[in-house]
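Quick one: structure tokens for this chain, please?
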Amino acid sequence: MSSYINKKTPTNQLIRYSILFYWSIFWLFNIIDKIIGGSLFLWVGRDRFAQFEKFFASAGLESPWIANFALIIAAGLEVFAFVFFTGALLYFLKKKIETSRAWFFIGIVLTLITFTLFSIGDHIFGDRFELLEHTLFWFLTLFSWVAFIRLENHSETEKTSLTKKQILSVSLISFLLVTTTCFSIFSYNYNFFSRRTDALIAEPVGENIYKVSFPFLGGSVVFEKTLHKFKLENPTKKINHIYTVPNPLRLKKADGLIFYIMTEDK
């Protein structure tokens, strides 16, 4: 028992393990996001097919085949990156350090290629926010490789280590934080997730003019149900136009959407 208590875990190995685990989970979630292609219960994703088609259409390439082909290439790179990072993680756990480093290197190369292509696309499509994000991830990828190699060459005499008491303390704090976060997430989903699907109330703001304010993350389902509800509640009205409000005029509702329904009597 005393030998187990005095046993120390080298922090350089923990950090290397964390790097491999992070990139494995990172690409796994990206793949899941593309498979789901939208939002589900407890998962707020993005329709990548629609996003890619919008990007290419903005550049004059409106054929969905081009956008879908580009998405397939991107997804393929992400899948291969996930496979190699996960393989590196498994070999690392088996203490096959040389093999793990080789797999990790291929994963790093695939990740750099992926973010390079994404950055080129961001320039072409004029998405500066995505460009900043992908550039940061590109440098993070490079830093991960440098850190992984430097920690491998760290001499035994220079290693710092965590005692069992420190590990238990960190684990306890992490468990409490994760538990609190999970409780908050499930509480929000139980009380407010219906906002993503429930129809909204159209408020009259003038003669034959109605305003609808979307909740946070309200999507197409909310829009369709709202129009259906409006037609049922106003059988004597005919919808002529639907106008959206520009971003600067959303009155601090930048995350939502405001649109007006213009009608006339039948």
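The helical segments are 2-5, 11-36, 48-58, 64-93, 97-125, 128-152, 164-192, 220-233.
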